[in-house]
Every structure is written in structure tokens, then in C-alpha cells.
């Protein structure tokens, strides 16, 4: 079975979490696959994918704040050891965050729908401070 595949473009406005659950659910619905496994993969090295709570926006803010403290910008004295600064002080920290967070996700499909929990949403976690156009590949088999 070859499966169904598409690519989603996600426009970001800078660092933060961007929910795109509805677009993924629409793809699964239109694919008309009763049961299977959906794989999502982001084609970039400075952002990540997460499944996270989508009910309370404070969760997104707290996650962004936590990772900003965990991996501060390269111009922070704690990050003086970094050498890769080609695109500014958020460049290497974005790569570090993408190295410790997932860049792919697997979600079961049953009854033609994503098997997500009640409060779970699918997010692109942008680690760069500038806006970007990110591409996520969806493959349903």
C-alpha cells in the first residue's frame, strides 16, 4: 500500500507554537483511510513538532518561556561557547531546541479520524525569532 501524502505550509510570525490540527484532520478525512498510521515530518532544522494541550493558551506561553530559559540566545553570556552564529543570536539555539524536541510525529488513525486525546493538538514549534514559511510532510498509510 503506497499511502496518501501531502505537504502543508505553515507561516510563522516568529518564535512560538502554531497549532495546525484542523489542517491535519482535514487531510485524514479527505484521504478516506479507515485505519492506519499518520506520520508528520517537518523539513527544517530550526523548528519542531509537538502534540500538546490545546485548551489553555497559557500552556503554549509556558512552554515557549521554558525553552527560552533552557536555551537562551547566543548573545547570552551562558551561551558564549557557541561558534555557529551565522544568522544571528537565535540561530544555533534554534538548532539545539530542534535537536532535543521531535521533528516527526506518529498518530494512529481509527474510524477515519486522528486518535488524539480530548485536549491534544498538533503544533509546529518555531524556534526562530523571524517569520518563516515551514513545510510539514504528512504521510498516511
In summary, what is this structure?
The protein has 141 residues and is an alpha+beta fold. It has helices spanning 21-31, 57-70, 91-100, and strands at 4-11, 16-19, 35-42, 47-53, 104-110, 113-114, 120-126, 133-140.
Describe this structure in words.
The protein is an alpha+beta fold. Helix content is about 25%, strand content about 35%. It has a five-stranded antiparallel sheet, with helices on one face. The longest helix has 14 residues. The protein starts with a strand and ends with a strand. The mean pLDDT is about 95.
Taking Cα atoms only, what radius of gyration do you get, to the nearest Å? 16 Å
Contiguous runs where pLDDT drops below 50 for at least 5 residues: none
Number of alpha- plus pi-helical segments: 3
- Strand order, main sheet: write it out: 1-8-3-5-6
**How is the quaternary structure best described?**
single chain
Topology, element by element:
Layout: E1 4-11, E2 16-19, H1 21-31, E3 35-42, E4 47-53, H2 57-70, H3 91-100, E5 104-110, E6 113-114, E7 120-126, E8 133-140
Antiparallel strand pairs: 1-8, 2-7, 3-5, 3-8, 4-7, 5-6
List keywords for this structure.
single chain, 141 residues, alpha+beta, 3-stranded antiparallel β-sheet, 3 helices
